[in-house]
């Protein structure tokens, strides 16, 4: 039995704890989308303003600036979670949470299935007191998106341009800021580099076959360079664990990995969806030291993640047959 098979053997209780409510009317959905959008944009602008006002504090104390920024950011993330995680019709389950202590810094990796994967990552972070300290590796263009991109820029997300020489310097500098002051942090990375979809899966599988790498069905092949550099930077620091989060989605009609649209998220039209997040805590000290073996370790992890998702898929489908 592999390292994770034992943990996955009793992995998933996906039985929803809530009854499904009837889908709201078109007018009701439109009104909700409008109200939620106005609320998010208004709070976003307020967060931006507070972030700007707090930025000079970094000249005095980076730790204090990080704490203030994280506190302000918490309001925005909490509002987002309220409109998704806290709604009565959302069927969200977890496994592996008992492994995670409260308030522990970590390097978090997760598979990437749709734009709202952060809702599930944040649901885990929220339960462990780390929601305000989530910092993501993001495409550089995102920081130019009004309100939301600006907020991510001010809270020191790590922006990358897919130019490895430049990105490696940025990555080292950004991570160094958190490590120097031993700031509480969840560094979150989607190491696949792209969201999972049929065309990206085909590209990933073709690349894997051509290079003798694992051919995966439910996830994309991970990209190793950024992961290896991040682990190298974190060794010996206060960030001592990798949290491996596996997110899964199921739609009553579209099936496994059927993910919601933005309209469905904003309107609360999630009655037909099931969500699951599994988390595993892995000591960085147990990871291979050399790059080739660390690459292999990451590929092996994604093979196991692919198998886990197949088990979750079977559990979702079995539940559908019973209902």
What series of H and E elements makes up the topology?
A: HHHEEHEHEHEHHEEHEH
Residue stretches low in confidence (pLDDT < 50, at least 5 long) are 17-23
In the residues, how many domains can be counted? 1
Number of helices: 10
Give the CATH level 1 class.
Alpha Beta
Assign the CATH topology.
Glycerol-3-phosphate (1)-acyltransferase
Largest sheet: 8 strands, mixed
Shape: globular
How much of the sequence lies in strands comes to: 5-15%
Query: Which secondary-structure class do the elements indicate?
Result: alpha/beta
Helix proportion range: 40-55%
> Roughly what is the average pLDDT, rounded to an integer?
88
Radius of gyration: 20 Å
**Could you say what the CATH architecture is?**
3-Layer(aba) Sandwich
Quaternary structure: single chain
How many strands?
Answer: 8
Pfam families: Acyltransf_C (PF16076), Acyltransferase (PF01553)
GO molecular function, one term: 1-acylglycerol-3-phosphate O-acyltransferase activity
GO cellular component, one term: endomembrane system
Protein name: Phospholipid/glycerol acyltransferase domain-containing protein
